[in-house]
Amino acid sequence: MWRVLLLCCLSFQSIAASRIQFATEASYPPFEYLDDAGQFAGLDIDLANALCRHLKAECVFHNKAFDSLIPALQFRNYDAVIAALNATEARSALVAFTDIYYDSSAVFVAKKGVYSGKVNVKNQAVGVQNGSQQQRYLIEEKEMQGALTVPYASYAKAFTDLKAGDIDAVLVDFAVAEAWLLLPENNKFEMVGEKITDVDFFGLGYAIAVNKSNKRLLRDLNNALKQIKASGEYKRIIMKYFHQ
């Protein structure tokens, strides 16, 4: 009997090892979103799938609220988080990060002609994603004092309220702002001011997060990331979304 149980356990471990459970928040194009067929899509999704192919593993994606991602990872509900997640010092105390895979910066988006040069945030309602570094920046950065921070579960809802005139501006990742502004229906809006690249808030860029105890997965993901960069596959993924 014990041999049967041992074989079952080994079989389960083999199956588990061939599957990586990724949590994400799929309303953040071009990094992660649901396409017209309801399937996960975006740069982060393509990147995760590429890493899984190199690891001979199956990627499984779960769509969760952004502010729940790190706590869920700490409780080991998932193996990893890939969600345009800034690798900051504060978050590194909670989870382990892979090598950086994309630089990040933030920018304000507002209706054209409302602001000249930069956003004067005093008494201005600024939409941000709840739990994001943009939210932390608005609350903690001295120059942002006086801003009325309006948190949203997703940036999709923040942009909807911006178009309706319910808020004055949105503070969001530069690449996300760029993708949103390329849509013809958003041609009455613009980026305002310079990119914000403060490493104290936005870290050195985006990375994949894993539970601190999962050193093997962290090593495997970093090795796979090096491989797809060396092969040119990483560059093809980036070019697909940004043509840079």
TrEMBL record:
Domain of life: Bacteria
Keywords: Signal
Pfam families: SBP_bac_3
Residues of the Solute-binding protein family 3/N-terminal domain: 19-244
Signal peptide per UniProt: 1-16
PANTHER family, sorted: ABC TRANSPORTER ARGININE-BINDING PROTEIN 2-RELATED (PTHR35936:SF20), MEMBRANE-BOUND LYTIC MUREIN TRANSGLYCOSYLASE F (PTHR35936)
Protein family membership: Belongs to the bacterial solute-binding protein 3 family.
Name recorded for this polypeptide: Transporter substrate-binding domain-containing protein
Organism in which the protein naturally occurs: Motilimonas cestriensis
Lineage: Bacteria, Pseudomonadati, Pseudomonadota, Gammaproteobacteria, Alteromonadales
